[in-house]
């Protein structure tokens, strides 16, 4: 029967397997980035709450692993960060997204940026190079960063300042899931906040989530910040967010993320 020692050996085997697995995925991800047919950018439409017209898109990475099938970015972005290839991955998304935006006039393009990319001293230069190469006007690009990036002094802070000076907008992603207090909102240098989907999904069960989101929208507007709500899945959520004056809405209720070719077809109609 299992004694303490055997249990521990079993645990070690499991850890070994996990690490090997992770190492394997890291190698696979490097290969995928070189091969260019496994990693693809999807685009999720974002709508104006008031007019219910299309306002733009958020670029979202997809990895179709040849053996394992689709792997979620929630899982492979951290691997890319640890493996030191997030910079290359970020440049790939940015380039694709700017090229797509050039085909989709009048639409805003939002791109997620990892804090590790923002800590790169050459990030702004690389960003400017992509805009120059694709011809995209900086006003049409919005970079989505998380709170940790907003609160990190040094290169990160300088890069964010330079990015906004270029005319590119910055959005604070996943708002409400981190550490910032509502009060801090008035002192943070961003153009928009994105309310995290966990709040929107809490509407049905909790009046607290509704009160919270209402307060965020009020405070944001008082400080001239625009607001996007993500994860809008049903009509009731949409109507509440509209009623309290949320500016943009994103979620499966409107549309799921889709390959560029689908958006090309949609806009050609
Ligand atoms: P995020 O930036 O918060 O992106 C929103 C996530 O919510 C996306 O998941 C999107 O597909 C999902 N979503 C949109 N509408 C709904 C809805 O109505 N209901 C539900 N349940 N989910 C909805 P996705 O595409 O799996 O991406 C997960 C996360 O991975 C992103 O969260 C972002 O943090 C990261 N990520 C994705 N692409 C990139 C990228 O190009 N660069 C970086 N650095 N991170 C990325
Ligand atoms: Ca985002
Ligand atoms: Ca989020
Ligand atoms: Ca996120």
UniProtKB/TrEMBL annotation:
Q: Where is the EAL domain?
A: 22-269
In this entry, which stretches build a coiled coil? Answer: 8-35
Q: Which domain of life is it from?
A: Bacteria
Q: What name is this protein filed under?
A: Diguanylate cyclase
Instruction: Please spell out the taxonomic lineage of the organism that makes this protein.
Output: Bacteria, Pseudomonadati, Pseudomonadota, Alphaproteobacteria, Rhodospirillales
